[in-house]
Amino acid sequence: MEILLIIRFCCNCTYALLYKPIDRVTRSTLVLHDLLKHTPVDHPDYPLLQDALRISQNFLSSINEDIDPRRTAVTTPKGETRQLVKDGFLVEVSESSRKLRHVFLFTDVLLCAKLKKTSAGKHQQYDCKWYIPLADLVFPSPEESEASPQVHPFPDHELEDMKMKISALKSEIQKEKANKGQSRAIERLKKKMFENEFLLLLNSPTIPFRIHNRNGKSYLFLLSSDYERSEWREAIQKLQKKDLQAFVLSSVELQVLTGSCFKLRTVHNIPVTSNKDDDESPGLYGFLHVIVHSAKGFKQSANLYCTLEVDSFGYFVSKAKTRVFRDTAEPKWDEEFEIELEGSQSLRILCYEKCYDKTKVNKDNNEIVDKIMGKGQIQLDPQTVETKNWHTDVIEMNGIKVEFSMKFTSRDMSLKRTPSKKQTGVFGVKISVVTKRERSKVPYIVRQCVEEVEKRGIEEVGIYRISGVATDIQALKAVFDANNKDILLMLSDMDINAIAGTLKLYFRELPEPLLTDRLYPAFMEGIALSDPAAKENCMMHLLRSLPDPNLITFLFLLEHLKRVAEKEPINKMSLHNLATVFGPTLLRPSEVESKAHVTSAADIWSHDVMAQVQVLLYYLQHPPISFAELKRNTLYFSTDV
What we know:
One of its GO terms (molecular function) is GTPase activator activity. Keywords: Cell projection, GTPase activation, Guanine-nucleotide releasing factor, Synapse. Residues 17-66 form the DH domain. By secondary structure, this protein is α+β, with helices and mostly antiparallel strands. It has helices at residues 2-37, 46-67, 156-178, 183-203, 226-240, 251-264, 382-385, 411-414, 431-438, 444-456, 470-482, 487-493, 496-508, 520-527, 532-544, 548-566, 568-571, 575-587, 601-604, 607-621, 627-633; strands at residues 73-75, 81-94, 97-106, 109-115, 126-133, 137-138, 207-213, 218-223, 284-296, 302-312, 315-321, 325-328, 332-344, 346-353, 361-362, 367-368, 371-379, 391-397, 400-410. A hairpin with a 2-residue loop joins strand 3 (97-106) and strand 4 (109-115). Helix 3 runs antiparallel to helix 4 (183-203) and helix 18 packs across helix 20 (607-621). The longest helix has 36 residues, at 2-37. It starts with a helix and ends in an 8-residue tail after the last helix.
C-alpha cells in the first residue's frame, strides 16, 4: 500500500513539475495566436504580442525536438543505437532517369529507400536502394564534382500543362463536392490529380545536390529549392561533427534498419495537394508585395544579397532577388517586390554572400556557387497578410536578423486595368494616342526597354520571370511619364530586372489589352480550333484586324521575345515561359470589375488564362510574321470580325 502511495506521489510530482508547465505554455501560445488574429496591425500591442508568440513557439519547438518520436532509438543486432533525425522525399537521378526516393538521415548513416509495392491489406515496407555511413559521406566541391549524368529536362510547356490540368481537376472536384456528387467520381478525379501532381513533383526540380561515398560511388539528387538543399547539407554536417566510425551493415542489420523506417518516418505522404485534408488551407492566390529592408548580425563585411522563395504546387520556387550590397556587415536594401502566389502558404528568405570566383563553378549547371549565410521561413497567415496595411516582421537565421514588410493583393485587384486620368504620360494611356503624340510606330518606352534588355539582359537567368525591385520600376514609370531627358542615363544604371518589370507594367496598365477587348472573344475561339489550316487562317486574320499601332508593337515585341528564347540554355526562359509571363498581360480583357472576388486555384489557372498563354505561344512558335505581308493579304480578306 505504501509503495502504491509513493508511486502515485511520484506521478503527481512528475505531472506538476514537468507536464503542467509545458501544458500552460501550450495553452498560452494558443491564446496569443487568437489574440494576434483579432488585434489590428496598427494597434500598439500588436508587435508585443508578436514577440510573445514567437518566444512561446520557439520554446515549444525546442521541447518537441527533445521528445520528438523521430529521436526513438533503433537497436541493431550488435547493440548499436541510432536515431532518426530527418526524412523526406527527394528526386534521385539514377540510370539517367528521375526516381522519387524517401531519404532517411539517422545519427550515423544516410539511407535512400523506395516504398515497396504491396497487395491490399499487407503491411507496407521500404526497400533500401543504398546507404552511406556519415563517416564516409563527403560533399564534393564544385571543382571536384564530375559532370552530372545526362537527364533530359522536362519541357516547360509540359510542366505548365500539368499545372493547368491539376487546377482544372481541382475545380471539377470542388464542383462534384458542391453538387454532392458520387464518391466514386470524386475518387477518380483525385486519382487523376495525384498522377499529374506526382509527375510535376518528379520532373520540376533542377537544383543539383551531390553526395559522395569516399569508398566509391557518387549520388545525385535534384531539388526544387536552395533552401531545401541547405537544410539537408547542414543537418548532415552537424552530425558529422561528432566522433563517427565507418562501418558496413550486414544484410540482417540493413533489414532491421530499413524495417524501422516505416514506423519512424515523419513525412508520411508525398507533398502534393491531393494528399491534403479537405479542411486544410488551400493557400493564397494573388500577389504578395514584399519589402526587404535590412539585415544585421554578420560577423564581417561581405557582398550580400537575399532571395525570396514561395511554395507552389507542392514545391518551392525562387521568385525574387535583391541587388548585391557590397562590402558591408549591415546591408540596407529597402527593395520592394511583387510576387505572384499560386496556392502559397510559406515565404522563405535566404541570405547569400556573392562569390565572384569563376573557378568555383558547379559542373552540374555551370553556375557560380554563392555561400548561404542564413535562411528562414514564415507562414503566410491569411488573417495577417490580407490587410491594406504593411505588416513588418523579422526572420532570424543563424544569428542574422532580416527585417522585411509584406502585404497581399488579390489577383483580380492587381490586374485591373485602370485608364490614366492624365493623357500626357504613357502609362494607362491608349497606345494609339502615345504613338500619334510621339510620331512613332512603336511607343518609345517599348523600344528603349527592349533595347536595354537585348544589350545587357538577354542572358540574365529568369529575365521577365524574376521580379524587379518595385521602387525602381515606379521610378522608371515616373521618368517615362514625365518624358525626362535623363531617361537613357537612368536606364543604363538601372537593374535589368527592373527594366523588364517596367515593360511588363506598361502593357499591364494599358487601358485595354494590346490585342484589344473587341477581338478577345475571337482570339479565344481561334486558338480552340482543331484544324491547323483553319486555325492559321483565323489567327492571321485576327492580327490583320488589329489597329496598326497595336499590330506593329505586337510584332516588335514578338521578335524580341523570340530572341530572348534563343538564349534559353543560358537564361532558362523558353518560349512557353515567356508566353506564360506575357500572355495574360497582352490579352486579359479590361472589364473585370463585374467578376466576383475569387482566391481559388481556378482564378490563377482558369480556362481563360490557359487560352491567353496558348494564343501568345502560337504566335511565338510561328515563322516570322511581316507587317507588310499581313497588310498585302488584307486585300483578300474581310476585316470584319
